[in-house]
Design a protein that fits this description.
0% of the residues lie in helices and 55% in strands. It is mainly β and 251 residues long.
């Protein structure tokens, strides 16, 4: 994708569509500024991934290579022929993930580094009255509910809806799926399902059908307003995405 800005202009992102860039931005700033530099980094550290011992072909005797994953947050170690290189023996350009070696390895090359699959956007600004900007990326995964077409249901009917889960990063995500239903008048919460999921990168699970039957007969005690809620939590059980809808059971 392409991120661009200008003097007294908005900053915008143009999506890479494969063989061309989109003509209209998929996102842009609400206002204008005097953009001096644009960079990506993981400001809130929510997408950090470690790479240990990445190897590269030694054929050809070249002295410049590119790390496989990015954006790179930090280069930790370069090991050539079993020895960790020190300052002055290599140069690294983080924005392009390019590593240049003073001496090309004879037997082995291993690289340790940190990259992110949830980069944020930073903009430095010549307009001192506005200052610099940081735009945080959304979380690596989310859930959305498409609620039923109606909001009221009678005993014996079926409540149907659809859910969508998406992983927006290249790397797999370990998450916890949770669905629950709040009963009316503080009658409690039904924990319908809690399920750990390991989804590969760029996964889309659209239009998942969900439904619940309304018992018949139904005691008047259970008539009223219900709240269905679905949540996604990360591997540390922190809430990342939530979607919900309300419906009413009537006589």
């Amino acid at each position: 994708d392409l991120v661009g800005g200008g003097w007294w202009a908005p900053t915008a992102i143009f999506e890479n569509l494969g063989k061309r860039l989109a003509l209209s931005p998929s996102w842009q700033t609400a206002g204008t500024s005097v953009v001096e530099a644009i960079f990506v980094d993981d400001m809130n550290r929510d997408g950090l991934r470690e790479v240990k011992g990445e190897t590269h072909s030694l054929k050809g005797g070249r002295q410049i290579l590119q790390l496989r994953k990015g954006p790179v947050v930090r280069l930790d170690r370069v090991v050539v022929d079993g020895k960790t290189l020190g300052p002055g023996t290599y140069s690294f350009h983080r924005p392009t993930r390019t590593l240049s070696l003073k001496t090309w390895p004879k037997q082995s090359l291993k690289i340790d580094y940190l990259f992110t699959d949830a980069p944020d956007l930073g903009i430095t600004n010549w307009d001192t009255s506005k200052g610099n900007f940081c735009f945080l990326r959304g979380h690596p995964f989310f859930v959305r509910v498409s609620p039923p077409s109606q909001q009221s249901f009678k005993p014996g009917s079926w409540i149907a809806w659809q859910e969508r889960i998406e992983v927006t990063t290249a790397n797999s995500q370990l998450l916890i799926y949770s669905a629950e239903l709040d009963f009316p008048r503080n009658l409690g919460t039904w924990k319908i399902l809690t399920l750990p999921l390991l989804l590969p990168g760029y996964t889309q699970i659209p239009n998942m059908p969900w439904g619940l039957p309304v018992p018949k007969p139904l005691s008047p005690t259970f008539l009223g307003l219900y709240q269905y809620r679905v949540r996604l939590l990360d591997a540390k059980a922190r809430l990342v995405s939530e979607s919900q809808f309300a419906f009413r059971l009537i006589p």
